[in-house]
């Protein structure tokens, strides 16, 4: 993939979408980890914690990009992305972040870096897949994620609350990335190249399964919740 080609820009667009929908949780983690620090240290902890987290994430992503070149691992990586895409569309309201707020600058810094590294594995895998082995795209993707994580948590959450379709677009982007990873795996690339329609069919199948299935599951959950509320009211 060369710079300034359609493949480059499509990969960049996918990474921006992935960052947008996956950065919210990481931003919340960082805010919670620094919440007990004095005001004058909070911004410093957020800045250096994010800097360290991005450095760790870059190292992890570079390793994943290398590993995905091995036969079979693109297939596995694509399969692992599908539940990530599905879980984006689960709005059960029972998610909690078990993050211990640091009382000192260094404890907050350690919490931010470790928690972000653990929670950022989905982001690492998604960006590595969307970059298709292009380290330049990985670097750009991580540079985009910094302002989103540091300054964008409130904006991201408000946007998603106001425009829920953003989550479906993001989930669809992850499912599309998964389909492309599966289609470009060393074991399957020859077959997909010989059957040009198959890659597009897989794209549509996985994106449709995640987005339409997620929408239907959300409607069922809403119906069950409404039914339970009605029973409780009349009971």
UniProtKB/TrEMBL annotation:
Membrane-related topology note: Multi-pass membrane protein
Any single Pfam family the record assigns to this protein: TerC
InterPro entries in alphabetical order: Integral_membrane_TerC, Integral_membrane_YjbE
Keywords: Membrane, Transmembrane, Transmembrane helix
Subcellular location per the Swiss-Prot or TrEMBL entry: Membrane
Membrane-crossing residue ranges in chain numbering: 12-33, 45-66, 72-89, 109-129, 135-156, 163-182, 197-217
Family the UniProt entry places it in: Belongs to the TerC family.
Protein name: TerC family protein
